[in-house]
Structures are given as C-alpha cells and as structure tokens.
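Contributing new records

If you add data, match the layout below exactly. Sequence lines come first and carry their own label; structure lines follow with theirs. Keep one chain per record. Anything else will be rejected by the validation script.
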Amino acid sequence: MALKHVTFYGCSPTLSLGLGMTQDVWAFASMMQKKFLGEEMKVELYTLDGAPLKSFSGMQVEAAGDIHALPKTDLVVLHALWGNPEEALKSQAPLWPQLRKWHEEGVPILAYTTGSFLLAEAGLLDGRMCTTHWHQHKRFEARYPRVDFRKERYITATGELYCAAGMNAGMEVIVHLLSRLSCTQVAKAIEEMFLIDFRREYASEFIAVGGQTYHHDESILLVQQWMEMHFSTAISLQQLADRTNMSLRTFKRRFKEATGETPMQFLQTLRLEQGKDMLQHTQKNVSQVAWAVGYEDAGHFNRLFKRHFDTTPAKWRKKQIR
C-alpha cells in the first residue's frame, strides 16, 4: 500500500527546522516509496491564504494553495507555531472545521511541537492526552483546561491525533506512520537517514521543565519514546535492552533509576491510558479495546484497569457519557 498524498499546513512565522523537514525528509520518503512500491507520494504545503509559509528567520516555502483548495489526503502534518501561539490562532478560524472533518474521516494528523495548539483550538483534544513543546507548557495548560495535558510525555497518540513535544519526537512519529501508511522499507530508510543523527541532542529538551527535573538518561528517553509509539505490539524486556545496546540487567537498572518504575510498569501505564481514551472516544467494546492496546485477555485488562483507576472499564465508560 502506497501513501499517495501528504498535506502540510502552516501559519507564519514557523520554524526553519520544520520547513527543512517538509522539504528533505518527505522528498526522500517519496523517493524511497518510488523505489520500493513503484509510486511516489505527493507532498503539498497549504496556508490559510495561499501565501508562502515563512519562518521567523526568513526562510520560506511556496504554498500549493489556500484553505479552500485543500485536496483529499491520506496524512496531515501541522507545522509548529513560533512565538506567542495566541497571535496566530486569531486568524485561523477557517481551519477548525477542516481539522474536525479530517478527524471524522479518520485521516491521521500529526502536530509538530506547538502545532498541538491548532488541534486543541479545534476542540479535538478535549478529554484527550496531549503534549507540546516545553516552552509553551504553562500557556497551553492555562488555555485548554479540558485537555488531559501531559507535560512529561514526548509523544501522545490518541484516535489518529499525534502530538510531538520536539522535532526528534516528531521524526519518531513519522517513522511510525510511514511503516503503517507506506511500507516498512520506507520507514527504515527514513530512520537510518535522519532519525539516528537527530537523536544526538534529544535529551536537552526535557531537562528542568516547569520546575520538575526530568531524567538525563538519553538512552532511556529514546526507548520510552519508542514504547509510546509501539505499546500495542508484543514487547519484551530483551527487545528493549537490545534497542539501547545494554545488557538486560543494566537496562532494567538504568530504566528504574531514570523513571522510578520498571519498563513493564511504564508499558502497562501506556496501554491503560490509551485504553481509557478508546473507551471514551470510540464505540469499541471492552474486549476490542483490550486487544487494541496489546492485551489478548480482556479479563486481564479489566483487572489491571481496576487496580490502576479503582473502577472497571465498563463503569468508567458509563460515567463519561452521563
């Protein structure tokens, strides 16, 4: 299955780094898809009025059209906002119904860093987990009290809405989406060409944020980030240790020292949080939710859910829809 069309949407000013990712990463992804699947992907940038998207430093990229010219698409990527997001949000009202329409159609939407403000402003994140760039934590939390804001998370993925706290996290989501929407060979090529180098300065974004000091163990940060995207698959401790090039014993020790919990406790929390989101926002029954988040045994999911949230999945869902 080939990824046919990717829509980028941005508001000026944005970040030059994000513009570069539009041009380089996706051009390379299209080349790789042509190589492996015989079909290029069309990647187009749109803005509210069709004007070029400009970065605060002066870089700009021509837009393919305005808000009224948006085509049918398979994936939407929202560029980061620069400066005070509230200024950009004032002019973007025509985008909100379009975001809601894409979401209703099941189109995956990825928000780079402060692009999460666009999703929240459209009301798509109400009652859902979300993260954003650490510079905007206080502003985001104050503006959107109905959002389940997770300042400690690098990635949140809920109902085909993806938020990435940094560009590195955004790259991790891209690799994940390409493996789903294109093919594993394209995803692997992007990971090897861009993500490995991107990781080198990753940890600095999550140190001393909002008065809370997060751990400095970059290897553990990276494996946590990977787990946030792959929590629904079968994951073993040895698999995680191999990703960090550590022995199993060293990995378990480092993970516990860095996070205060074991790798399996962290994975369990990811799965239960995602299950809670599905119970609230989808029509899946409890067994289907359990399966979707990685548990083959619905009874086991029920017991874990009750232990973690002090109520059963069915009772929790009933309470949400009152």
